[in-house]
Design goal:
Radius of gyration of chain B: 26 Å
Largest sheet of chain B: 6 strands, mixed
Largest interface: A-B, 25 and 27 residues
CATH class of the largest domain in chain A: Alpha Beta
Number of helices of chain A: 11
Oligomer: heterodimer
Number of strands of chain A: 13
Order of helices and strands of chain A: EEEHEEHEEHHEHEHEHHEHEHHE
Strand content of chain B: 5-15%
Strand order of the largest sheet of chain B: 5-6-7-16-15-19
Number of strands of chain B: 19
Distance between the termini of chain A: 38 Å
Helix content of chain B: 40-55%
Structural class of chain A: alpha/beta
Number of helices of chain B: 33
Strand order of the largest sheet of chain A: 7-1-2-8-9-10-11-12-13
Shape of chain A: globular
CATH architecture of the largest domain in chain A: Alpha-Beta Barrel
Distance between the termini of chain B: 10 Å
Structural class of chain B: alpha/beta
Number of domains of chain A: 2
Radius of gyration of chain A: 20 Å
Chain lengths: 297, 801
């Protein structure tokens, strides 16, 4: 049986595909988009959140840490470079100020979690959505879970960056009912600059999926002011989409500042200066897609 | 989606209020803004009557004649511009008192007059009349005094310790709702039934009851006729032609109903209202009185009048909105002491049921159902309350419309599964047809409308029973032994021993409560018959028996369990931390509870954060909730039928405001709750303990066997972002349908941000109109006692992903 690493299971997810869904977040992603909402999903191994506002300074962590990575001064400080993520502190922290992100789970255990909401899927024509991180990074595990979902008659959605080998994509494509496919930047240089990877493979993969499954693809575009929402990028996306088999729907996801989450993980957030797009900006982008006949949400 | 800021939230909330006409808007303004006062008129009249009463008459005849005396003498206020008449008390929100039930002393009146939350203003004249006439006569004679003097020492000790409350100490049983009989009969036809019944050979008591019913029938007709004359006179002096015509029409209607059954939509509302006023003047029944399945009852009148061109949809709405304000004009009768703590609100819980199934099992949603939802949304008054009944056959459009109204944030309407209610009532032995014509009154109390007397007897404090168990029968607050000896908890070797001791204490206290219930039932049957209410509940005439003596077709008696979440999490904590992980010894835990976790902050936080909790679809905790729920029901239902009414014994899971009072008498609990803080409410998880979202809460709650209860209350707080998203609303409707497929009974939503509530606490003067869901009712947030405000803020705010 395959094991995977996940960092969250959200229930009553209502924006990740049709009906009421359970969204499983798989840990690990090759991309490191600067606007990433789930930075704890980037690393394939465990992460440690420090929610300092919950800390009552009981020193449980300080006493437990084998690496002297915790300093007990006027406040608790974590020396991230010394921390080997053994999680002894998080396991015992009484207030959950220290919180572990990530856990290993096998496909049977995950199925149990997914099946708990069967009654909701049945009443809403919902199902399960695999998100992350990048689910395709754990393709063997993903495939095993997908097979089990199909056996149970559960609708499956893959929320993907599209960054994977074609071989891996082909290994799971038949088990996936709906793709939520992220498109960020078309300009290769900018893509590399803001996400850390080139986009050639992504675009090829999108082309591959839409050849046979264009009805089952929703394009998701994060609207990051000054980065992805530029006239040029929107134009490029429209051009790309027009060259593909007709995709019906586009979702526009407005940027939110999530610096607080990066702080809690001890990670650097590069987009603190970027503001959320205004309603007008969102409407303008929406209009451009609608003009070309896309359904936009 | 961005969260709404507070200003937007407030603006959205306020912009919803839009009464259908200018006239109603004015009436509403006056209704919402008037202060609540005590009106001594009724107390004075009933004292006068009893001072001069004929000593040879039976109790029921005396009560009937007293009612007639009131109907002949009470003043007849008419609100300017109103379309429906009839009022208990001398004016809007001028509340009658009932010294024969509970005679307030001067101290009580001072407290009522001056308390910060929910005061009842008492003027000098009222103080004087009470001091000179009312108190001297009723002292030692009221039901309240009779009850307390008849209770055992054990009962009193448990009562004062806060193990349970007693519903009947200041208010009379009631707990019922109108059925189809009301809208298809007038006094004439009921009198005919009474005369026919008299042809049978009857006992003296039965004859007396029937005679009393005839008298109270005459009395309400006298009351209506008095109004009719006054209205005619007013019409005479009225200059505005439209109002003159209205007054003449009202005069005509009042000369027809309630003597005869109504023949129009307008007359149906007026007819019901006279009966309502009669019932709440005769005595002060709990939950006032209810028009029941109003959309079902009004539909034939509505259709006929529309067809005949006598009514437009807009006029029907105006009449309904006028009708709405009649309820709002009647705050609950004044409550003091423990009763004020368990039900700390002006709301008197009169409930209008909307939707559900028809008697033949088909879908009951109709035009009037939608009209009522619109009225509810536009009026937003404290009263009346509503209930939306959803069955498998209910169209999605209706449930989505109800959710849309609910999403505007004042907590109405609550959503119920009619299918579950029907199963509850079938299990209790009601006929299928009667079960289908059921609904909910009060908060979440299921009943066979118009045919059942389902008496709530008091709230029952489950966590307090555990506290007494953990102290081997002693109440640690007073150091008095009030329970049984179930063993030193330090000697308990397993969780099973803890639970078995708890179960023994539970049986012991339920036994005390049941003994008291039997005595109180008899006291009411003997001393306080209600012939007027009996007229309207089937089969009191047929049985020639009073409502309070068991005349109704179905008789039921309830105990309302409180703190299911707190007791579950407390048991889960003991099981997990003491007996499984063995992180703490029982001695350490008991010591920490005694000291309210002082010096034990790590343990406190581990109990709160690292211990299984009810509401997260975690069987470890949820199975304990099932155990306590089922055992409570098993113990209660095991009692034989009550002695007088022959009532079966049942359990509800609802709190009103009692979870705050019950929390105040408990020290810290093993779930990490601190001393004196509110318990969990209804059957909801502990505030803030549900952490995986609403679908997880539904699954946990769905594990309880709701059908075995008579009603269970679940509160959920939703983030206001939801309001703007139709897709989310549709999915929420689907989620609720799935929840009801688990045979759950009820859910209601507070759509309000914690930030707004906190701001309202700081600046109450700016947020006087902010209404929120409390338990089975909504109330003005700033009128809530502080403990309750805090409790609502702490409820988990479910956000949508």
């Amino acid at each position: 049986m395959q094991h995977g690493t996940i960092f969250d299971i959200k229930q009553f997810a209502v924006h990740d595909g049709p009906g009421i869904r359970t969204t499983v977040f798989l840990k690990g992603c090759t991309l490191s988009c600067q606007w990433c909402h789930n930075p704890e999903g980037i690393s394939p191994s465990l992460d440690l959140f420090f929610n300092s506002y919950l800390c009552m300074k009981c020193n449980t962590c300080f006493n437990l840490c084998p690496n002297e990575a915790i300093i007990d001064d006027s406040k608790i400080t974590i020396l991230r470079e010394l921390c080997d993520k053994c999680m002894l502190c998080a396991n015992d922290c009484p207030t959950e100020a220290l919180q572990k992100s990530g856990r290993s789970i096998n496909s049977t255990e995950l199925m149990e979690e997914i099946l708990k909401s069967t009654i909701y899927y049945d009443f809403s024509e919902g199902g399960v959505t695999f998100s992350g991180g990048e689910p395709l990074l754990q393709s063997s595990f993903l495939k095993e879970v997908l097979e089990k979902c199909k056996k149970e008659g559960i609708h499956t959605t893959l929320d993907t960056s599209g960054y994977s080998s074609l071989k891996i994509l082909k290994s799971v494509i038949d088990y996936i009912d709906l793709f939520l496919f992220d498109l960020k930047l078309i300009n290769e240089r900018l893509h590399k600059e803001f996400t850390g990877v080139p986009n050639k493979q992504i675009i090829e993969n999108l082309r591959f999926i839409t050849q046979t499954r264009s009805n089952d693809v929703i394009i998701r575009i994060p609207i990051i002011p000054g980065i992805t929402s530029t006239d040029q990028n929107i134009e490029d996306i429209l051009t790309l989409l027009s060259s593909l088999n007709m995709v019906k729907e586009v979702n526009l996801l407005p940027f939110h500042n999530v610096s607080e989450k990066y702080d809690r993980l001890g990670m650097e957030y590069k987009l603190d200066h970027v503001r959320a797009p205004s309603d007008e900006e969102m409407a303008k982008v929406k209009e451009r897609f609608e003009e070309k006949g896309f359904k936009v949400k | 989606m961005d969260s709404l800021n507070i200003d937007d939230e407030v603006t959205t909330r306020r912009s919803i209020i839009k009464p259908v006409t200018e006239k109603i808007a004015k009436l509403r303004e006056s209704s919402v803004n008037s202060d609540v006062k005590i009106s001594h008129e009724r107390a004075q009249l009933i004292t006068e009557f009893y001072l001069n009463k004929n000593e040879d008459l039976s109790v029921v005849m005396t009560r009937a004649l007293a009612f007639k005396y009131l109907m002949e003498k009470v003043s007849l206020p008419i609100e300017e511009g109103q379309l429906i008449v009839g009022m208990r008390g001398t004016g809007e929100k001028e509340v009658s008192s009932f010294p024969e039930v509970c005679c307030h002393g001067l101290d009580d009146l001072s407290v009522l007059n001056s308390r910060e939350k929910n005061p009842y203003k008492v003027n000098q004249e009222t103080f004087q009349i009470y001091e000179e006439k009312i108190i001297p006569f009723w002292k030692d004679k009221s039901m309240r005094e009779k009850i307390f003097s008849n209770m055992s020492e054990e009962w009193k000790e448990a009562y004062y310790a806060g193990i349970f409350t007693e519903f009947m100490e200041q208010r009379v049983p009631g707990h019922t709702s109108g059925g189809e009989l009301i809208f298809s009969n007038g006094i004439s036809s009921l009198t005919n039934s009474i005369i026919a019944k008299k042809e049978n050979s009857l006992s003296q008591a039965e004859l007396e009851e029937l005679k009393a019913m005839e008298i109270v029938g005459e009395a309400i007709v006298i009351y209506a006729n008095r109004y009719s004359s006054n209205l005619k006179e007013m019409a005479h002096g009225e200059e505005k032609q439209t109002r003159k015509e209205e007054l003449l029409e009202m005069a005509k209607i009042c000369s027809q109903v309630p003597k005869e059954k109504p023949n129009s939509f307008w007359a149906a509302l007026q007819h019901y209202w006279f009966i309502h006023v009669g019932i709440i003047t005769e005595s002060n029944p709990w939950d006032s009185f209810n028009p029941g399945r109003l959309d079902q009852f009004l539909l034939p009148f509505y259709q006929k009048d529309i067809q005949e061109g006598k009514l437009t949809r807009e006029r029907a709405k105006e009449l309904l909105e006028a009708f709405w304000l009649k309820f709002n004009a009647h705050p609950a009768p004044p409550k003091v002491g423990v009763t004020a703590q368990e039900s700390n609100t002006y709301n008197d819980f009169s409930k209008i049921n909307i939707g559900g199934l028809k008697e033949d099992g088909s879908d009951g949603v109709n035009d009037v159902s939608y009209l009522l939802l619109e009225v509810l949304e536009e009026m937003r008054t404290l009263q009346p309350n509503t209930a939306v009944l959803i069955s498998k056959r209910t169209p999605n459009r209706f449930i989505e419309k109800a959710l849309h109204v609910s999403s505007h944030g004042f907590g109405e309407p609550p959503i119920f599964s009619h299918d579950t209610m029907i199963m509850m009532l079938l299990r209790q032995g009601k006929s299928l047809e009667d079960a289908r014509m059921s609904g909910v009154s009060g908060c979440v109390e299921t009943g066979a409308f118009g045919k059942e007397s389902y008496i709530l007897t008091g709230y029952f404090n489950l966590p307090k029973v555990l506290e007494i168990t953990l102290n081997n029968g002693i109440d640690p607050i007073t150091n008095k032994k009030i329970g049984v000896t179930t063993g030193d908890p330090l000697e308990f070797q397993s969780f099973e021993e803890v639970y078995s001791a708890f179960s023994e204490q539970l049986s012991y206290f339920i036994d005390i409560k049941m003994d008291g219930n039997d005595i109180i039932e008899e006291l009411y049957a003997t001393n306080l018959p209600v012939p007027f209410l009996s007229l309207w509940i089937e089969d009191c005439i047929k049985n020639a028996k009073d409502y309070n003596s068991g005349g109704s077709r179905y008789n039921t008696q309830y105990i309302q369990i409180v703190g299911l979440g707190t007791i579950t999490d407390s048991l889960a904590s003991l099981k997990h931390n003491v007996y499984e992980t063995k992180k703490y010894s029982m001695k350490q835990v008991l010591e920490a509870l005694k000291n309210n976790f002082a010096g034990n902050e790590v343990m406190h936080q581990i109990f709160r954060n690292k211990t299984p909790k009810f509401g997260n679809d975690d069987d470890f905790a949820d199975n304990l909730a099932q155990l306590v729920f089922n055992d409570s029901i098993k113990i209660v239902e095991n009692y034989p039928l009550s002695p007088v009414r022959k009532a079966t014994r049942r359990v509800y899971g609802l709190p009103t405001t009692c979870h705050v009072y019950f929390g105040s008498v408990c020290q810290a609990t093993p779930d990490g709750r601190e001393a004196k803080i509110a318990l969990s409410e209804g059957i909801s998880p502990v505030q803030g303990a549900d952490r995986i979202g609403i679908s997880g809460v539904f699954r946990s709650i769905g594990k309880l066997d709701h059908i075995k209860s008579g009603g269970t209350l679940l509160n959920q707080k939703l983030s206001p972002d939801l309001v703007n998203d139709d897709e989310v609303m549709t999915k929420l409707a689907q989620l609720i349908r799935a929840y009801f497929a688990m045979n759950a009974h009820h859910v209601q939503f507070n759509v309000v941000s914690a930030d707004l509530l906190k701001q309202a606490q700081e600046k109450p003067e700016k947020f006087r109109d902010l209404m929120v869901r409390v338990a089975g009712y909504s109330d003005y947030f700033v009128n809530l006692p502080l403990g309750l405000q805090e409790e609502i803020i702490k409820r988990t705010e479910q956000t949508i992903l």
